[in-house]
Amino acid sequence: MKSAYPKQIKPYLLIAPALLLAVLFSYRPFILTLINSLHTVSLAGKRLSFIGLENYTRLFVNPSFLASLSNTLRFTLFFVPTNVVICLAAALLSNRPGRLATLNQIFFFLPMAVGLSSSMMIIKMMFNPSIGIINQLLGFDIQWFNNRHAAMTLLVIAGVGLDIGLDFLLLSAALRNVPSDLLEVAKIEGASGVQTFRYLQAPLIGSTLLFVVVTNIKDAMLISSPVMILTEGGPFRSTQTLVYQMYLEGFKSGNYAIGSAIATVVFLLTFTVLLLLLRLERRRVYYQ
Predict the structure, then answer these.
(1) Which of 6, 10, 48, 52 could cross-link with 40 by S-S, CB 3.0 to 4.6 Å?
(2) What percent of the chain has pLDDT over 90?
(3) For the chain, how big is the Rg over CA atoms in Å?
(4) Terminal C-alpha separation, the chain
């Protein structure tokens, strides 16, 4: 009689490689970061003495950190609704019947074919106040990199450009999965396009829409590469975000303890926001 143990062990053997990678490259670094934030750390990365929450106390009286926190929250508030509305409008546009539907899909999918650094350099050239095509086409004289409001707007535009490809695909696929017979019934009953979307399509794509919002919040809280390439935190720290300050403190200045404390604050803040959003999901989102 064959033992049942091999069948019971097999699932754990299958997930063991993925679990090992997660422990080595996700959980272990996070735990070490949390521990470092409670110590003083030398330039060599060696923990010297336990100081408890002193690093966090120093952070929350640091004007640079408070500015980074404010900038990160402002960017999140601007970026998330802007990106969701644009991606949802693009998905609705590309799912309409017509000859241009395929062309629209290609157009909105194209940003995924360009690397992050390359796309940021293209945006930097396009928005150059002197030789950039944006000011010339629109007849503006906006100092995109020297004006604090324009610089934040530029970051939002860059963030949308980075995320629009994947979010468009997700929302477009969700809209295509809405049963066509329900759409036909809505059309026969005389429902307008806005009514069809509000009362039929929106509830049925709620789970995908929630996923897009959650990933957008995560991306907004962790934004750093566009800041490094486009603005470097300027002007006057108006676009300096938490993760960019973590990079400055931990990697440029060698202050690993403060960098670890910032990383922990970013995790706790993001986790809290997403947890509140997921609690709302239980009541508001419909799963087919």
Answers:
(1) 48
(2) 43
(3) 23
(4) 43
pLDDT in tens, 230-286: 998 888 889 999 999 999 998 888 889 999 999 999 999 999 988 888 777 666 555
In order of start, what are the domains of the chain with their CATH numbers? 5-50 (no CATH), 62-284 (1.10.3720.10)
197's CB contacts (< 8 A; 6+ apart) are 92
Per-residue confidence (pLDDT) for residue 284, from 0 to 100 = 59
> How far is residue 142 CA from its own chain's centroid?
27
Residue 287 scores a pLDDT above 70: no
Q: Which two tokens stand for residue 63?
A: 């004007």
Sign of dihedral through CA atoms 30, 68, 161, 145? Answer: negative
Helices (H) and strands (E) in the chain, counts: 15, 2
Do residues 169 and 109 make contact, with C-beta atoms less than 8 angstroms apart? yes
